[in-house]
Amino acid sequence: MSAPNKSYDPVEVSALAPEEVERARDEALAAIAAAADLDELKQVRLAHAGDRSPLALANREIGALPPAARAEAGKRVGAARGAVAKALKARQAELEEERDRRVLVEETVDVTLPWDRAPRGARHPLTTIQERMADVFVSMGFEIAEGPEVEAGWFNFDALNFKPDHPARTMQDTFFVGSEDTDLVLRTHTSPVQVRALLERDLPVYVVVPGRTYRTDELDATHSPVFHQLEGLAVDEGLTMADLRGAIDAFVGGMFGEGLATRFRPSYFPFTEPSAEVDMQCFVCRGASVERGADPCRTCSSEGWIELGGCGMVNPRVLVACGVDPERYSGWAFGLGVERTLMFRHGVESMHDMVEGDVRFTLPFGMEI
Ligand code: PHE
Predict the structure, then answer these.
(1) Residue 213 CA: which ligand 1 atom is closest?
(2) End-to-end CA distance of the chain
(3) Ligand 1, atom 9, residue with closest C-alpha
(4) Is there an atom of ligand 1 within 6 Å of 272 CB?
(5) Ligand 1 centroid to 313 CA: how many Å?
(6) Which residue stretches, if any, does this entry annotate as coiled coil (predicted)?
(7) Which residues face 185 on adjacent strands?
(8) Does residue 365's CB lie within 6 angstroms of at least one atom of ligand 1?
(9) Ligand 1 nearest-atom number relative to CA 233
(10) Contact (CB, 8 A) for 355 and 226
(11) Looking at the predicted structure, is the pLDDT value of residue 225 above 80?
(12) Whose CA is nearest to atom 7 of ligand 1?
């Protein structure tokens, strides 16, 4: 840097010469115009308008001029720096606009593209409703019990008081595993778990058994060779059919809402005595569709009642087969159809929908857990 001048000699302060200032300005303007993006412009700003740029350095030289020469030089450098600053500002605005425009295009989101590449799926409504049904009893203090789906014939039939010639034991109804003498079957109901529960647990026993069952039915709108039941078993001192009725009423209230009647119709099962079929009042029409001239009801086919399943007092022979003293203990049991419950509770019209595994069927039921 030059020392203060005593005698003014324009050659000594060549940075202030008009052509030098012009050159520095023109170089700056050319570089600004050539800056292709904001990063480049930043470099250009540093080189041509920063503290160490030729024009800034020239500006600092002004002080060294004799007072008479300062004004003119100051004006010249000031004008050049002003022109550079103005060009920088304009180019900055231009490049920012360009960048914004480009970003808008580059970062465009195509809202019509499929968004869900890993769809969450849904639980099968049979699983959900089975858990719900069981939950009503769990809330009354029942425990969940389980048993194998490949079951010994003894549990599935003998211990439940099926006589050897009972028609249910034939090939017509039962899937045998291996030959008939292996005595292994796919369980035809969840009732064998009654026997397992009584053998495995201490009395009193209060269990519900949700599970898969098998019968040699053809798949059609109302039948499937694989279906589900919810078994219930209570064995305690002093239990009566009134307790069974109360439990069924609580189940209907818990699943379908309060105020619906239930009814027992006499029936027969080898493992309960007496036995009944249990119906509930239709929760849609509440029986009104039975009246002559009333609107038909799709849920109960205008019967007014919906069949829930079978039930009864545990046959003392079953208690004896399980080592329970029938003089001291009594019990009741029920078996409810899970598919049937799903069909009328949710208006599912065909068994096919439940077994075909089409996600469009399960999705509307959602992820309820
Ligand atoms: N196991 C019987 C059936 O599958 C239902 C049932 C269970 C009946 C318990 C009475 C008691 O049809």
Answers:
(1) 4
(2) 82
(3) 334
(4) yes
(5) 11
(6) none
(7) 151, 176
(8) no
(9) 9
(10) yes
(11) yes
(12) 335
- pTM of the predicted structure, to 2 decimals: 0.70
pLDDT 10s digits, 123-170: 899 999 999 999 999 999 999 999 999 999 999 999 999 988 887 777
CB neighbour list of residue 81: distance below 8 Å, 6 or more residues apart: 49, 55, 56, 59
Task: Report angle CA 74, 76, 80 to the nearest 5 degrees.
Answer: 115
| CA nearest ligand 1 atom 4, residue | 189
Retrieve residue 305's tokens.
């009642």
Helix (H, G, I), strand (E, B) or coil at 214: strand
CA of 190 to the centre of ligand 1 (A): 8
Average pLDDT over residues 89-107: 94
Residue type, 45: R
Asked if residue 191 has its Cβ within 6 Å of ligand 1, the reply is yes
Residue 342 has pLDDT above 50, yes or no: yes
Q: Can you tell me the distance from the alpha carbon of 168 to that of 217, in angstroms, rounded to the nearest whole number?
A: 13
Q: How far apart are CA 322 and CA 193, in angstroms?
A: 11
Q: Which residues contact 291 (CB under 8 A, 6 or more apart)?
A: none
Ligand 1 pocket residue status of 311, Cβ below 6 Å? yes
Q: Ligand 1 in contact with 157 (CB < 6 A)?
A: no
State if residue 315 touches ligand 1 by the CB under 6 angstroms criterion. no
303: tokens are 């019967």
Q: How far is the CA of 191 from the centre of ligand 1 (A)?
A: 6
Question: Hey, how many other C-beta atoms are within 10 angstroms of the C-beta on 114?
Answer: 6
pLDDT per residue as tens digits for the range 44-91: 999 999 999 999 998 988 888 888 888 888 999 999 999 999 999 999
The enclosing H or E element of 330 equals strand 330-337
